[in-house]
Amino acid sequence: MWTAAVVTVSDRSYAGLREDEAGPRVAELLAASGFEVTRRALVPDERELIEQELRQLADAYDVALIVTTGGTGFSPRDVTPEATAAVCERLASGIPEAMRAASLAITPRAMLSRAAAGIRGRSLIVNLPGSPKAAAENLAAVVGTLAHGLQMLRGGPADCANEP
Predict the structure, then answer these.
(1) CA–CA separation, 136 vs 130, rounded Å?
(2) What does pTM read for this prediction?
(3) What is the pLDDT of residues 79-117, one digit of tens each?
(4) 68 lies in a domain?
(5) Do strands 117-120 and 90-91 pair parallel, antiparallel, or not at all (unpaired)?
(6) Widest CA span of the chain, in angstroms?
(7) Count of domains observed in the chain
């Protein structure tokens, strides 16, 4: 069982003006997929605070999978992908590509997602949209493969020759 953390990025939820629905939904889906959700956080759309939270979860808590929800659109305050790229040592472009491809089958607006994914140390960071429905759909598109990536990232035996 891999550890996971969910970070909701939302000015309105952080200020108490809107309930965070995406974060709990993502946490439920991760738990149902066999992840142990050990941490949850709520931060405003402030790049420095997002970066700080991601660094802490990866470095201090050694969380295997860090999933963000929110801040991936075109709004001037949507800076989650930039914060993710800033703290990652290597990008994992195939993950957001797969999420966008799956989402395009549902809505043409999927092409507007700027979600990113990358690796910091032994942690994989994946951005999801802020909409609870879109976050769940995007996570469902990739969650089945993430365990294999984490197995490789964390140095365990991972047989890449045998596909599921």
Answers:
(1) 10
(2) 0.95
(3) 999 999 999 999 999 999 999 999 999 999 999 999 999
(4) yes
(5) antiparallel
(6) 49
(7) 1
User: Helix, strand or coil for residue 100?
Assistant: helix
- Residue 134's identity, in one-letter code, is A
Domain holding 134, by residue range, is: 3-153
At 147, which amino acid appears? A
The size of the chain, in residues, is 164
The answer to whether residue 49 sits within a structural domain is yes
DSSP tag of 60: I
The answer to whether position 11 is within a domain reads: yes
Q: What is the CATH classification number for the domain harbouring 148?
A: 3.40.980.10
Q: Is 49 helix (H, G, I), strand (E, B) or coil?
A: helix
Query: In this structure, what token pair is assigned to residue 122?
Result: 């032994």
Helix (H, G, I), strand (E, B) or coil at 137: helix
The two structure tokens encoding residue 141: 């598109």
Are 66 and 118 a contacting pair, CB within 8 Å? Answer: no
